[in-house]
Amino acid sequence: MSSPERQTLERWDREHVWHAFTQMAEYQPLFIERGRGCTLIDIDGREYLDATSSVWCNVHGHRHPHIDAAIIAQLERIAHTTSLGASNSTTVRLARRLVELAPAGLNHVFFSDDGATAVEAALKMAFQFWRQTTPPRPEKNLYVAFEDAYHGDTLGSVSVGGVARFHALFRPLLFDVLRLPAPQLYRLPPGITPATACDYYLSQLDQLLRARHPQIAALVIEPLVQAAAGMLVQPPGFLRGAAALARQYDVLLIADEVAVGFGRTGTMFACEQEGVAPDFLCLAKGLTAGYLPMGATLTTDRVWQAFLGRYAEGRQFFHGHTYGGNPLAAAAALASLEVFEAEGTLARLPAKIERLAAHLKRAAALPPVGDIRQRGLLAGIELVRDRASREPYAWEERAGWRVADFARGRGVLLRPLGNVIVIMPPLAITLPELDRVMDVVVEGIAMLDAR
Is the peptide bond before 236 cis (omega within 30 degrees of 0)? Predict the structure, then answer.
């Protein structure tokens, strides 16, 4: 591209495009123009390995021929039609396929636009359910969530979120939530060990539900891993125990698998690994393999039945999205699920997971690395100033971003979470590509220590 044209685009980008979670006063444009497989190509033809799946959503690589063809075929029929009182055959087929794949009992699918709206729908469904169930229990209007949780950026999803750096400013706009410490294994309370952590966190949840369950509508959880919290891996058995407690106290369980669904943790859905069937399953990101915006909220017959009645009763779900159930997105999602089956995507993961673990073991030996957290083909490498005390780098030191800047210069794109280097490549990544990503990451962390 000619220099004058490039300069114009950069100026327009800085002046007109407001980038999410980005300090625009310091923003340096990066134009990604093309992609193929796990490689992204910028406007100047430079290539980068997509080490975070274009923010955790790409599954089978960019420009997968089967998904491309499915979208083109759908486009030749219709690009969009409303799901308000009408339907489309592609969307219906996707709903059926999701019901077949999801944990047992999740027989109804509400489509929305993204992960935040999938969670928002679940929160509102749970709230309305308790007012319309038999007998009605309108006093159940509180939610339980965890510290450092991230469920999106709509006001409802922010309310149950717990990332203070993102959300503290908006506190006056949010509803109150009963919040518990994040169940994790690195920074444990005094006297708690990894072996006792699961029982410790479950006992806290038990105490809260025992005392407040008559007022609690739902428990909101990211199964197995709290992703945006820094890839905090939960103690084994915690999800299963939390689900059992929710059932015991008649509290609905909302499982937010926006980040961890569609193979990220090694199985299609993270809930499978501990035999959990939630009341609501929230999906997005990998749902369309990272091609088009789409969210889905799956729920049970029990919830569904509470919304049925005559029109005059006003029991229908008072919520909707213009592009909910969009046929183009549904075509991409169906094609992605076909690729999972045709290419044996899940069956190929163990070798990649093992290779990632071997590289993480190398990284763990570096002085700036305080903790390594892995579940399936996702991982977090937490950087600390002092390993013994676990003292973190100050936010202003941009430790994670310094590693990401180094990696970008070596042809690997990362997006850290503060001091945590996130590794979440497309499931389609090859072993040589994974080797290259991790070699660059290890080199970048070593560079950090050298300073």
Answer: no
Q: Between 163 and 39, whose confidence is greater? A: 39
pLDDT band at 168; cut points 50, 70, 90: confident
Tokens of 158: 């922010």
Same domain? 154 vs 207: yes
Query: What is the SS3 assignment for 253?
Result: strand
Give the Cα separation of 426 and 423 in Å (integer): 10
**Residue among 443, 423, 446 nearest 50 (CA):** 423
DSSP state of 216: E
pTM above 0.85, yes or no: yes
Helix axes 327-342, 89-101, angle to 10 degrees: 40
Of 325, 342, 359, which marks where a domain is finished? 342
Place of tokens 């990401």: 404
Does residue 77 form part of some domain?
A: yes
Q: What is the pLDDT of residue 448?
A: 86
Confidence of residue 450 (pLDDT cuts 50, 70, 90): low
Same structural domain, 145 and 274: yes
451 pLDDT more than 70: no
Domain that holds residue 253: 68-342
To the nearest 5 percent, what fractions of the chain are helix, strand and coil?
45, 20, 40
Q: Which of 255, 20, 229 is nearest to 118 (CA)?
A: 255
CA-based nearest residue to 429, from 369, 364, 349: 349
Amino acid identity at 186: Y
